[in-house]
Here is the input.
Amino acid sequence: MNARCITELTLIFGKDHILTELEDMIAYSYDAAHVEVLPEVVVFARTTEQISQLMRLAYREKIPVTPRGQGSGLSGGSVPLQRGIVLVMDRMNSILDFDPANRLITVEAGLTTSEIDRTAVSTGLFYPPDPGSVSFSTIGGNVAENAGGLRGLKYGVTKDYVKMLEIVLPKGDIVRLGNRCVKHVAGLNAESLFVGSEGILGIITTVTLALLPIPEHRESALAIFDTLENAAQAVADIIAAGVTPSTMEFMDNTTIKAIQNFKDCGLPRDAEAVLLIETDGEFHSAQAEMARVEAQVKKNSARQFNRARDAEERDRLFEGRRVALNALASVKPNLILEDATVVRSRLPEMVRGIIDIAARYRIMVGIFGHAGDGNLHPTFLIDMKDREEMVRTESAVKELFQLAIDLGGTISGEHGIGIEKKPFLENQLGEASMNLLRDIKRTLDPENLLNPGKIFDMPAIY
Amino acid sequence: MHTAAKNQAETHLLEAAREFQKCMQCGKCRSVCPVFKEMGNELYVARGKNKLAEKIVSGDLQISARVKDAVNQCLNCKTCSANCPAGVSPEHVVLRLRWYITTQEGLGFFKALLFRQIVWRKWPIGLAAVLVGLCQRLLFGIGPKNPVRHLFPLFGFSKRRNFPTMALRSAQSRYPEVIPARTGAKRMRVGYFTGCAGNLIYTNVVKSVVDILTAYGCEVVIPKRQKCNGTPVLANGDYEGARRLMEHNFNLFKKYDFDAIVVACSSCGLSLKKEINLFIEPGDELTAFTGKVRDINEFIHNSLDIKQEHLGPLPYRVTYHDPCHLVRGQGISAEPRNLLRRIPGIEFKELTEAAVCCGSAGSYCLTHYDTAIKINNHKVRHIREAGVDMVATACPTCVMHIQDNLLQHNSPEDVRFVVEILADSLRAAGTI
Here is the structure.
C-alpha cells in the first residue's frame, strides 16, 4: 500500500488508531480459525463516518477491507484473505440507548455481547443469544455470523433479536435498516440480509436488539444414559412431548472421560452419554415442564436423573459442560471444532454417523453440543504436526459435511462458512441459490473489496 | 555464541513452543488481560504473544524493538492462564521469550550488575538501602513537589512515583538466626524466608511474623545469607541468574530440618513452591523442600491455634486485594480473608474485582509506570467505592503500587499486610 494511502488513513482515524508495523500485522492476521494472512494496515474505527470515509477511499484505490470484531470467529471471517486493510471495530463499544419500556437496546457494533446483559439486568431484561464467546466477541460480529448458543432451542439465535442495523455499504453509503416497532413491514426485510452476511455485504456499525424479561425460575437436571441411542431418542421424545427446554446439552463418552481426566465434575466415566436440561419460566410451569422431561428421560431407560435443588447444585451439574472444550483440548495438541447441524428428529442418525466416520478414518472425536436444537459440535482431536493424520482429518470433515447435507441438515449451524467450508456450500444450496448470493454481493460490492473470499468466491470480473 | 548458551536458547524456544502450540486462538484472553484492556492492541494480549513466539520459533520474525516491547508488556499476573480454555500458560511463553532474548542480546550492564553482583553481596544492598533511606528521611519523604523527583528518570522511574521508605537497619540484622519460641514447649521449627522487601522495606512485616510465630510455639529460624528468591531476576530475562539464586536458597534452607518454611511475600512463595521446579534437578529433596513452603496467611490459618479470645478489637473497615501470585499463583484466597474476618471490630468489605491485578507486577510498575497506573486506577476506584479505612493484602509490590496510586489520588486509605493487622489485633489483646 502506498504511503499516500497510509497518510490519508492516518488523517481519517488518527495516529493512535492505525498500525502498520510487521509485529502488529501478525497480531491481526488471524482469528480462531486456522488461517493466517497479514494485512497491510490495521485501523481502529470510532465513528460510522470514519468507516464511510474508509470505504470511499478503499473503492477509489481498490483496496480490500476486512472488518473485525474481537477476532473470536471460528470460520475465519475476520482474516484479511486478500491483505489490504483490517478494520477493527472493538473501539466502537458504547451503549447508545437503553429503552426498557420497549425492551430495546441500541449499541455500537464493537460492544462485547455480554456487556448487553450487564445493562439490561438492572430492569429485569436479558439478551438471550449466548454463544460460547459471549464474553469475548462483539455484538457486530455476532450479528455478522448470526451467532447461536446454548439457548437456541427455546430462544432462537441472533437473527431473532435484530430489530435495526446501521450499516456502511461497501461504496461508503450509510444506511439504517429495520424499525423499532414489534411489527414493521415497510420495505423489504432488508436488515435480515446482513444478519449472517459474514462481513461481505456491509459493515455493521450500530445494532438495535430486542430484549426479553428474565425468566422467574430455572429448573436444571442431568440425565445419564447407558446408550447413545437412548440419549438421542430422549431428546426427540422430549420435543415430541411438547416441552421446550431452554437448554438441552449433550455430551458423549469421549467428552465425559476427557472432562473427568481434566477435572472431577462428578460425571460417570462409563456413561455413554449425558444430557443437561434446563427449563425456565414461571415457577410452576418450569417445574411442570421438568416433570415431563423426567418422564421422557425415564421412558428411555436413563440410568440416573439428577435435579438440582439450588443454584449451587445447578452450577455443579453444568460444571462439566462448561469445561468440556477445555477438557477435549487437553487430550491432543489440537482440535477441530465443527458445527454441522441436523433437524432434531435425525439426531440419532447424525451421532451414529459421526462415530462411524471417526472410526473409519481412525480419528478421535468428542461429541458434545446443543442437542436440543440439533446443533452438535463433533470435535476432532488431532495433532496438526502429524501430516498423515491431517489428511485423514480433512477427508473425515468432508464426509461429515456430506452426512449433514444427506440428512437434510446444514454444514454450519452457528460458526459460519468463512474460508474452509466454501467448497462445500454449493453442495448444500445448489447452483441457482449460489448465483443469487453472488448477484446480491455483486450489486452491493461490484469490485469485491469488502471481505473478499468469504462464504463463496466471486468469479473474476469479466 | 557459546554452545551452552546456544543450547539454552534453543531450549527456551522449544519450551515456549510446547505452550503456544496448545493455543486455540479463541481470543478469550482479550476479555481478562489487564494490559490489553489499557493498550487495546492484540499484540499485547496473550494469544498475540503466543503468535509472536510462534513466528520467532519458525524464523519468520526477528527480535525487534517491537517484539521486546510486546514481550515486556506482561504482568505475569496469570489471569490469562487461569481463564484459558486450552490450558495454555502464556506467561511461560513470555518468560521463555525474555530468557531467549537475553541469551541472544545479553543482559545489559545495569541488570548484569544488579542480578549477578549486587544481589549476591550483603553490603552493597545494605548500603544502598541505608543511603536511599537516609535521603528519604532527610528530604521529608520526598513529597509530590520535591525537586529531587527530577532525578528519578535517570534511574528509569517516573517523576511521579512514590516510594516506600527504606529501613536504615535491615530486619534480618535485628534478629539472631534462631529465635526461640516464647511460650510453652516448642511445637514447630519454622524457617522464614523474609524476601528483600521484608528485609529492607517492610520490616514491620518481619516483626509481625516473628512475634506471631514465636508466641504460638514456633522456633523461627531466619537463615543468614538468604538471597533474593529469583523472581525479579527471572522476570527480567536472566535465566542463569535466577537459577543461581534459586540453587543458593535451596541449598541454604535444605540444611535445616524445618517443619515448615514460611514466606510473607506472594512472589517469594510462588517461586519457592513452584518456579523453583524449573531450575533445580527434580528429586526427593526438592519435593520435600517445596512441600514445606507455606504462605504466612496459609500457615497461620491452618497450623496455628489462634483462639478468638486471643484477638483484640481493631476499629477498621477493611477490604482485601488478592495478589496475583497468591490467588492464582498459589490458589490462596480464603485464608487471608478468614483471618481478617475473625478480628473483632473489623468490618470486612469485599472488594469489587479483588483478584484483578493491581498493575504493580514487580519491576513492571517501575519500567511501565503509565500503564501500571492506568491498570491500578480501576483498583483505586474500587477501593474508594468500598468505603474502607484500609486495604489489606499480602504482597510487597502490591502494597507499594496501590499505596502510590492512592496517594496520587489524595485518597486516605492505608495499605497493609494482613499479617501486620493480625499482629496488631493480637497485641491489642496482649497475646503477643
Observations:
- Residues 307-428 of chain B form a domain with the Rossmann fold fold (CATH 3.40.50).
